[in-house]
Structure formats: C-alpha cells, structure tokens
Amino acid sequence: KLSRLRHGIPPSPQVIPTLPRAQFLGRSTHTIGKILIPRVAEYSSILFVAGGARLVIGSARGITVSDAASAKVILQRGKDSLAGAIVAEGERGLIAATVQGLRDLSIHSDASGTFLDESARPLQSRAQLIALSPCARWGLGVYGRVRPALLDIGTGRVSMTLDHSYRDESSHVYDRPTVTFAPNGERFAVCDGDDVTVFDTTNAPDDDDDDDDPSLVQRAGVPIAPKPRGILSPVLRLGKPEGGRATERWRPQVAFTPDARGLLIRRPRNRVQLWDVSSGGHIGEWSWRLDSLTCLAIAPDGLTAIAGARFGRVVVWDLE
Question: Looking at residues 240-254, what average pLDDT do you find?
C-alpha cells in the first residue's frame, strides 16, 4: 500500500471474503442455559410469553414456567389436568388444549412466589384438539373416524369440517395428522403421512350471529354441539415424493411466511422449497447438503429463513 502511495497510485479497496447470502452456515458454539425438567420424554408445546421474559413448556408433566434469561424453573403444575398441553397466547391470555378439553391459564407472581391459575373453557364438541393457532383463534380437532374439524376457540364451536380424509375408513389404526398454523392463523397445513394439504381459515363462516341458530337448542340444560356449516376445501396439496417406500409415512417440516402467502417445506434429499399457496406456484428451492434436516422457521419480517439439522448445524438464508 505504501509503495502504491509513493508512486501516486490510489490504494486498492479492501476485499472481505463473504459467503453467498443463501449459503450462510453457522454452528452452535455454546449452551446459554439448560431447563431441567426430569422424566420428560418429549414436549407437547413451547412458547415465549410476557414479552419473551418467560417460557411456558407443555409436557406429560403438565405446564412448566421458566425464566427465559436464566433458564430457571419457577413453576410446574398440572400433571393431571394439563398433561400434554398445547399452549397458545391470545389477546386475553393463555389457552391450553388437552385431552380433557380447553383451559384458560393465567400466570401471576407475588411476594410468596409464582402461581398458575386454570379454569375450564366450554368446548361444544367431542373432538380432541391436536393443534392451536399461535393467535389462539382456531383449533383443529379429530374425533373417531370422522373428518378433522376446524373449531372456533372463542365460541368453542365446530366451524367447519375439512375435506380431508386423514385416515383410511377401513383401517383400525389411528394415525394422528400433524398440523402447522400460520402465525396469523389465516392458513394451516395438515400432514397425514401421504400429503401436505393447506386450508384457508378465512373461508370459515363468521359465528357472530348465532342467536337464531336452531342447532344451539338446549336439551335438558345441556348445549348440543352444533352441526358444521360446511366443508372447508383445500387451497393447496403437495403429494408424497416419488421413489419412497409405499409404507413409509411422509411428515416433512413446514413453515408459513408471516402473511400466510408462502409455505416453506422440506423435500427429498433435505432440499427446501418455497411455494405460493394462493397460486400453487413454485417460487424457489435451496439445498446445502444438510444431514437429517429437523426444523424450519421464517423470521417475523418474512425476509429470512432458517433450517436446522443434526449435530447443531444451522443454515440461514435470505428469501428475497
């Protein structure tokens, strides 16, 4: 550089080697904290609450509340009533879905400690809720051999059934589908092991005017579960990839963009594809030769996506 200056030649710009934007590869380097919940095989849900200050974890042991900064467990309750709870946070607080139905939850603290209050919320259906939308507006329930049902959490009613046969009517083996809701609750994806089917909740009817609904007639003081107002048709269906074994169940990781317009999905050989839900068009595809891709997520601004795999490998890329 000094030699170039002596001869009146301007210095060359500094070149900083960078990776392509769609191939940023990082590894986890250290553990921030460990939440010690003994004798738990798997978690049913995990959710940040209180502006990210606390972490609510659902498992077979009920609800565990921990401090997000220190990872210290500050409360554990509900082994019987809240076992396997799926938790969502709505405008009025926390809602938990369990085998026993819906429950309202509230966490409060005073000088003596932190407490969890729970109360039953009426659910006018025998369907078992297996998923809640992050906004706590919708739930998806299954019951016996009937179609899955979209339930309005506010009223506890079945809004519509789904045009989706999640299991063979001749089969006696119960195979519960996996469900992923968009962050705003406008769409959700159902994976039954053969297809990934996307439904639009904006097509569901409004339940505000229910006063004259004959299906809400009371019998012996017990409300009758209202009949669904229709069948919700899918807006997108992605079939099982070719070349797989006939008996193998296909349950790929999926993630919606914040506006619910795009669907990120893992395809064979750990490739990741982005689909436009409304048009059914294929937008993009990426591959980083990751081994056993285990999770997908999209940032709240919809500009960045992330994929996680075994051995702590993480890929972050720009969707633009």
Answer: 74
Residue type, 202: T
Q: Give the N- to C-terminal CA distance of the chain in Å, as an integer.
A: 38
Do residues 132 and 98 lie in contact, with contact meaning Cβ atoms separated by under 8 Å? no
Distance, CA of 43 to CA of 182 (rounded, Å): 20
The SS3 of residue 3 is helix
Q: Give the span between the Cα atoms of 27 and 314, in whole angstroms.
A: 6
A 10 A CB-CB count for 310 gives 10
Neighbours of 50 (CB within 10 A): 13
Q: How wide is the angle at C-alpha 139 spanned by C-alphas 257 and 48, nearest 5°?
A: 60
Structure confidence at residue 8 (pLDDT) = 47
- State the CB neighbour count (10 A cutoff) for residue 65: 21
- What's the longest Cα–Cα distance across the chain? 101
pLDDT at residue 315 greater than cutoff 50: yes
* Residue 85 CB neighbours (<10 A): 27
User: Could you report the per-residue pLDDT of 158-188, keeping only the tens digit for each?
Assistant: 888 888 766 555 544 456 788 999 999 999 9
Q: What gap in Å lies between CA 193 and CA 174, rounded to an integer?
A: 12
C-alpha 201/C-alpha 190 separation (Å) is: 13
Distance CA(175)–CA(192), nearest Å, equals: 8
| Token pair for 207 | 């339940």
DSSP codes, 198-218:
EEEGGGSPP-S--TT-GGG-E
